[in-house]
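Summary for the lay section of the report: proteins are chains of building blocks that fold into shapes. Here we show the chain for Short chain dehydrogenase/reductase family 16C member 5 and then a coded description of the shape we predicted for it.
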Amino acid sequence: MALKLKAAKKLLIFLGKSVLALVEAVVFAIIPKPRKNVAGEIVLITGAGSGLGRLLALKFAQLGSVLVLWDISQESNEETCKMAVEAGATRVYAYTCDCSRKEEIYRVANQTYKAFLPAMIANNRGHLVCISSSAGLIGMNGLADYCASKFAAYGFAESIFLESFTKGQNGIKTTIVCPFFIKTGMFDGCTTGCPSLLPILEPEYAVRKIVDAILQENMYLYMPKFIYFIMFLKSFLPLKLGLLLGEYLGAFNLMDGFTGAKKKN
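The coded shape description reads as follows.
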């Protein structure tokens, strides 16, 4: 009898919390979440010398954050640093760092996910942002290695979130960003077979959506919104029907014209 009462109590608590979560989701779907204040907060941006990294640095500079900029190119990173100061940042620190080399990361600041987390856990405070990709959600023809790295990044960030949640570290937030191709030069030559549903994204638009997701503490951000629908379809469509849809959208030929990012002389 005691076991049945315990099970019933557990079920009622689950149902009650589920209803509250659904109501909250509906409310915030209608009324945008309040945005948190990041003025004075330390924001570390990797790849800050160009592309999304530079644009994110400028956006957070306007919001009054203290910027720590990492990039493999000292010249590009220092240029971003100057631009951030002009955009209103009061404190900006630029470091030359190759984030693909562990020893470089520890040499520069002794900080990575691995080294950040103990301090975040101790203070129950922080926000981890993972820039994955739509290629981290669905395999893509011609992008096997890139997909592997982005699937790994997505899974790693989601796992870190769940570990923090399980330990009661609710002050540590996570945002996982999965955009379609962005016009940063990385995927020069790539095309989209259905620009109305899967447009190649403008960098300014992508950065605006990313910063909004961070300030509203959203867990997931897929861009464009059609990616959400694709993931929904992927969960139940028969394989053959999914492949037909991919062919219709031109999803298997996105890389046909790929030329790669143009290197600076």
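Put simply, here is one thing we learned. The beta strands are 42-46, 66-71, 92-96, 126-131, 172-179, 220-223.
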